[in-house]
């Protein structure tokens, strides 16, 4: 039997050729036409589709809709296929424990069967979901994220402080592999505030010379406050120059200011797919990694493509996952919209605005769709004294539904600020939302910002 280990299965030379990073990325992709990119996408889609037909989950999902091999030939046919989401994956796990039947390990010959790299989601919205990768798909994801980090300016000389969670959770391991395997920077895996308490994180960053922070913006912002509480000035005593974060409701300007003017870059991805899109130095939206993904933006109600400039669910097809877990039309239920116009960098990739909320965390209030993260971002944008921490509470007032947005602010707030923020929400959203101003730290027990990968931003008291 021939030796078939992780390195052999990942095929490093093919990875470097097919998914370039750094200067090689610019040389390979800048100036590439949309037609040339589409030809590559179609080639890779056919390979992933052929593999998916060997996976029981997809045969069952597509067979239930009367779809047979040969019915789907090109990416134009994608809308004919049903999308699926986390609930379908969890049902597969329940029916076929412990890993479900959505992996295709058994589709490979016994002597060429890739190992399964196993992680889970954080479980912040329920039972953790198994996340399954093969060596090749794992390292493609890692190289795509390395592409983002390098485009943002990370170098081998950086000392990278990571506040992603570890344990079985995918995030911390994913970014560690990226930085260590493909960027080459020194990596410090601090984790969340539960794994390494916040004051100790500040000590570690100062002691070992951290120059970059990666993680979720909520907690990165919180660390800047802890640094000041410990008597250190972010940006001077802890000279962070680069932050690569999932911004959510936090603005780039406020996060940069919190860390003494560090450059801040946003990116988007989910545990199943890895990075899907990232912000490059042009700052004109997030470039979708279309050499690896086909991204649809679909109406949450109908599932049909939305018009340009309209909000919709991101439905992702991974064009590289043909070793363990193929992903074809996975509905993330994360909401975005497309950015129109040509890329200033000369890249053939489409751009999106990034994560704007979740359609399954959307609140319909008196006929208007509201996203808590969008409300929080608007409040922080309008209030210089805001710490960035907020939570939206939906409740009943007599016979109607109502929302109160709680926002942490520094200093002594007055009624004029509250009135101004409520007026801004009404003007921008077209509906009355009450604002409650809270002292710094007052919402921590509700948002669980120091203990969760993703802070809680909505409490629905009607349920």
Structure, briefly:
It contains 14 helices and 20 strands. With 463 residues, it is an alpha/beta fold.
Could you characterize the architecture of this molecule?
The protein is an alpha/beta fold. Helix content is 32%, strand content 22%. The protein has 14 helices and 20 strands. The strands form five sheets. A nine-stranded mixed sheet has the order 4-3-5-6-7-8-9-14-13, with helices on both faces. A four-stranded mixed sheet has the order 19-18-17-20. Helix 7 (135-152) crosses helix 8. The longest helix has 19 residues, at 34-52. The radius of gyration is 22 Å and the shape is globular. 45% of the residues are buried.
Judged by helices, strands and strand pairing, the structural class is alpha/beta
Average pLDDT works out at: 92
Main sheet record = 9 strands, mixed
Q: How large is the radius of gyration?
A: 22 Å
Oligomeric assembly: single chain
* C-alpha end-to-end distance: 58 Å
In percent, how helical is the residue content? Answer: 25-40%
**What is the total tally of β strands?**
20
Helices, by number, come to: 14
Which consecutive residue ranges, at least 5 long each, have pLDDT under 50?
Answer: none
Globally, the shape reads globular
Strand content: 15-25%
Q: For the largest beta sheet, what order do the strands appear in spatially?
A: 4-3-5-6-7-8-9-14-13
What key phrases describe this protein's structure?
alpha/beta; 32% helix; 9-stranded mixed beta sheet; globular; 14 helices; 20 strands; 4-stranded mixed beta sheet; 463 residues; 22% strand
């Amino acid at each position: 039997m021939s030796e078939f280990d992780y390195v052999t299965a990942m095929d490093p030379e093919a990875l470097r050729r097919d998914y370039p990073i750094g200067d090689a990325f610019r040389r390979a992709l800048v100036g590439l036409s949309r037609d040339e990119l589409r030809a590559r996408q179609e080639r890779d889609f056919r390979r992933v589709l052929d593999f998916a037909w060997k996976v029981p989950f997809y045969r069952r999902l597509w067979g239930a809709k009367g779809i047979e091999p040969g019915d789907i030939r090109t990416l134009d046919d994608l809308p004919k296929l049903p999308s699926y989401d986390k609930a379908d994956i969890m049902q597969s796990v329940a029916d076929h424990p412990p890993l479900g039947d959505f992996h295709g390990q058994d589709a490979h010959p016994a002597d060429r069967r890739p190992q399964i790299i196993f992680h889970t989601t954080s479980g912040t919205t329920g039972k953790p979901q198994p996340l399954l990768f093969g060596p090749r798909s794992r390292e493609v994801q890692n190289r795509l994220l390395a592409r983002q980090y390098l485009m943002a300016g990370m170098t081998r000389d950086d000392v990278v402080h990571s506040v992603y969670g570890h344990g079985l959770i995918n995030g911390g391991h994913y970014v560690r592999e990226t930085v260590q395997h493909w960027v080459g920077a020194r990596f410090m895996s601090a984790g969340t505030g539960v794994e390494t308490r916040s004051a100790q994180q500040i000590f570690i960053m100062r002691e070992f010379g951290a120059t970059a922070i990666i993680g979720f913006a909520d907690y990165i912002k919180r660390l800047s406050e802890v640094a000041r509480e410990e008597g250190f000035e972010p940006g001077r005593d802890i000279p962070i120059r680069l932050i690569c974060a999932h911004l959510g409701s936090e603005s780039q300007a406020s996060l940069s200011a919190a860390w003494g003017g560090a450059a801040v870059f946003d990116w988007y991805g989910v545990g199943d797919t890895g990075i899907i899109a990232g912000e490059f130095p042009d700052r004109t939206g997030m470039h979708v990694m279309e050499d690896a993904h086909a991204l649809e933006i679909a109406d949450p109600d109908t599932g049909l493509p939305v018009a340009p400039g309209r909000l919709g669910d991101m439905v992702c097809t991974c064009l590289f996952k043909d070793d363990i877990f193929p992903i074809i039309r996975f509905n993330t239920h994360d909401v975005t919209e497309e950015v129109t116009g040509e890329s200033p960098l000369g890249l053939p990739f489409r751009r999106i605005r990034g994560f704007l909320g979740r359609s399954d965390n959307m609140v319909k209030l008196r006929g208007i769709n509201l996203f808590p993260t969008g409300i929080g971002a608007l409040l922080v944008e309008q209030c210089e004294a805001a710490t960035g921490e907020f939570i939206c509470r939906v409740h009943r007032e007599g016979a109607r539904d109502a929302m109160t947005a709680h926002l942490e602010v520094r200093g002594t707030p007055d009624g004029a600020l509250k009135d101004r923020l409520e007026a801004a929400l009404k003007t921008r959203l077209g509906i009355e939302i009450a604002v409650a101003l809270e002292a710094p730290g007052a919402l921590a027990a509700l948002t669980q910002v120091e203990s969760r990968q993703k802070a809680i931003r909505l409490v629905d008291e009607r349920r």
